Structures are given as structure tokens and as C-alpha cells.
Amino acid sequence: MEENMKEQSINLFSDSFSEALTNIRIFRYFFLIHELSKYGIIDSISIPGMTVERLCKDHSLVTEKSLRVIAFLESLGVIYRDKKQISLTKFGSLFSANSEESLIGVLDFVFSNEVMSAYKNLVPSLRDDRNAFNIANGSEAFELDPSGSFHQVFQKAMDATSVELNKLVAASLGAIVPEGNRLLDLGGGSGSLLVEVSKSRSDLKLINFDINKHPRSGLFENVIGDFFKNEIPKSDITILKKITHDWGDEQVVKILRKVRQESKPKKVIVIDTLVSSEDQRISKVSKALMDMEMLIMHGGGRERKFKDFQNLAYESGYSLERSFSLNSLYHFIILEPFERKQT
Ligand SMILES: C[S@@+](CC[C@H](N)C(=O)[O-])C[C@H]1O[C@@H](n2cnc3c(N)ncnc32)[C@H](O)[C@@H]1O
After folding, report:
1. Ligand 1: which atom is nearest the Cα of residue 228?
2. Measuring from atom 6 of ligand 1, which residue has the nearest CA?
3. Which residue's alpha carbon is nearest to atom 26 within ligand 1?
4. Ligand 1 pocket test, candidate residues 208, 212, 259, most atoms within 8 A of CB
């Protein structure tokens, strides 16, 4: 019995005291990279031919102290040194704002005061029906000062985590979305998915719908609205990417029913996480962390299993036709409306 439990638990880290201690400090390691990045130091290291001397001059840094930071970055494989020159490694370039796959948006979000203070309110949030983000910031995450800085930080993090995912989704739409269709991205945020889709599908009529205002793009129609309160535009296909996991079951059913009645798509495509007992160790940890994030940020939001999606779809008048995995975290789930038999 005990052996079984051991096997089932997610033992990402080693049992050794010193390794556990290092792993605790890894948190600070990302914090420090974020600090260096905020001051443009990581970006400067990405400039060809950069030297420690020039870096210190450009950023008014004391050389002796800065050399210790350089050694720290080198020890963790963020940079490498070739004689006097310093450069970012492939891993290090993930922390440069200049990289297409930059993770800086994610670090800005994780270390923002709003998110850090939300995490500190985990336990109080377990005592009643408020979520930790709301306890800490006095507002739901999506409603917090829409013209303020947190809103931008949130959107940048969303886009930063979707660079690869948007490409995978766009490629998977090929066979599923017929020529000339109206494609609606519900809760599409900045519209980065539709930008990606437009690269290969100029035949489609693209509509981005979101509660928050985003810069206009000539590539798609931008509709600002609340999917609980406002009319959802007509579409042939509606996409909900990273939307269902933000909400509790009741709200998901509300959204899907409204989509069915007002948008009337032939298919709904849900892009979200599916938790499975088959998940590999690292996916298990990622999905469990994501579930905590939903608990802290939104309260009712959660990561779900295949069966949960089947039930939610059925409750909303859809059948779950097919699903396939896009990467280790996200699934492409196709729902189709069905007619309930009159009894
Ligand atoms: C987790 S983000 C996902 C954004 C985008 N789909 C993506 O994959 O990057 C959730 C999005 O839902 C939007 N949203 C939240 N509540 C909404 C509502 N009631 N009506 C419309 N959009 C809403 C947020 O503004 C945000 O852009």
C-alpha cells in the first residue's frame, strides 16, 4: 500500500537535504534573472560582441560586484564566456525580451505584486468562497483596473505562454475549418491566436471577442463584450482557448449555452488542459501547478478530466466529438451541438 502511494506521488525533487535546499533557492534564481532583465541587462548581453567591461560601462555597474553576477549566470547556463566576450546561451535567450519565445512576460506576471500577494492569501481563501486574488487585490483578476499595468502584465504573460501553442492550434484548424467560415475567438485577449491563424487562412472571417479592450488589428474584427451579459456574435466555429479553466462548472455551462443559442456555431473548439492518470511526471506537476493558479486567481476555475468535459458539453447541449493533445499541457477538444429528443 505504502509502495503504491509512493509511486503515485509526484516526486519531482530528490530526497536529499542539500538538493532540496538548492531547489528552494531556484525560486530566487528566477527572481534575480527577472531583476536583471527589468534593467535591460539580459538584453544587453544578447548584443553581439558584448564584454563585461562594456556591460558595466553601459549600465553604470561596479565591475568587481558584477563579475560575481556574471559567474552566477554562467554557473546556471544562462550565459557563456569566450575570452572577454559574454553571450546568452539558448536557454538564456528565453529571458531576453528580444527573443520570439521570451519568458519575460511570464516572470513579470509571476513576480508582480498582485500575483505575489494573491499567493500569500492561499490559506485565507480556503476558509470561504472568496479567491486569493480578490482577497489580496479587492477585485477579480479580469476586472482589476482594465486600463492599468496589471492588465497589460496579464495579457503579456498570456501571449508569452501561447507562442508555440498558437502555431499548433492554427495548424490543427486546417482540416477542421472549411473555407470562408466565420471563426470567433471568445475571450481571445489580444487576438494573438487570430493573428497566427490569419497567416495561413486569409479566406476566413475572423472575430475576436473579449471583455477587455485591446489594440485594434486590421486582421480581424474586434468586439468588446462580456460573454455572460452581451450577445455573442454569429460564427461557424467558436474557439475557447484557455477560457474554460478560468471558471467553475456552472459558469462554463452558462458560456457554452450562450454560445449555442447566440453564436450558433457548427463546432466549438476548446483548447485547455485535460488531466489524465496517464500523464507523465512533468505534465502532472505542470497541471497541478496550473490548477493551483486557477484556485488562487479565480477560485472556481480548475483543470479538468476528459469525463468532466464530456459532462459539461452534454449539460450545454453539445457532444464531445473528438480530442487530441497539442503538447504536454494542452488539448484540442471538438464539441458539436446535438438536438435533445422531445419526450
Ligand atoms: C486566460 S485568458 C485567455 C486569453 C486568450 N484566449 C489566450 O489564450 O491567450 C482569459 C481571457 O478571457 C477574457 N474574459 C474574462 N472574462 C470575460 C467575460 N466575462 N467576457 C469576455 N471575455 C472575458 C479575459 O479578458 C482574457 O483575455
Report:
1. 19
2. 188
3. 189
4. 212
Ligand 1, atom 17: closest residue by C-alpha: 211
Q: Which CATH class is domain 17-95?
A: mainly alpha
Taking alpha carbons only, the member of 185, 170, 281 closest to residue 232 is 185
Distance CA 247, CA 87 (A): 43
Domain 162-337, classified CATH 1.10.1760.20, yes or no: no
pTM above 0.70, yes or no: yes
Angle between helix 249-258 and helix 306-315 axes, rounded to 10 deg:
50
Taking only the tens place, the pLDDT of each residue in 275-334 is 999 888 888 999 999 999 999 999 899 999 999 999 999 999 999 999 999 999 999 999
Residues that are catalytic: 245
Going from N- to C-terminal start, the domains of the chain cover 17-95, 104-156, 162-337
> 175 CA to middle of ligand 1, Å?
26
The Å distance, Cα 259 to ligand 1 centre, comes to: 15
Q: How far is CA 243 from CA 186, 235, 303, in A?
A: 8, 18, 11
